[in-house]
């Protein structure tokens, strides 16, 4: 599992916990973690494509 996937899972967990407990700050942290995970995945995919092109 890549870094991005781990961040997205962590984000989902924080959001769900924030929703259940009414903690808006935790929900926001979860959204940030999910977004960070998505960005990491996209950057990693782009880097892989560049590496493949250079080979």
Automatic annotation (TrEMBL):
Stretches assigned to the CsbD-like domain: 3-52
InterPro entries: CsbD, YjbJ_sf
Transmembrane segments: none
Annotated segments matching region Disordered: 1-55
Biased segments, Basic and acidic residues type: 1-17, 24-55
A Pfam family that the UniProt record links to this protein: CsbD
UniProt record similarity statement: Belongs to the UPF0337 (CsbD) family.
Name of protein: CsbD family protein
Phylogenetic placement of the source organism: Bacteria, Bacillati, Actinomycetota, Thermoleophilia, Solirubrobacterales
């Amino acid at each position: 599992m890549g870094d991005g996937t781990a961040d997205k899972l962590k984000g989902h967990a924080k959001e769900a916990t924030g929703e259940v407990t009414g903690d808006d700050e935790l929900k926001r942290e979860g959204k940030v973690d999910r977004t960070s995970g998505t960005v990491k995945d996209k950057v990693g995919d782009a880097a892989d494509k560049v590496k493949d092109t250079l080979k």
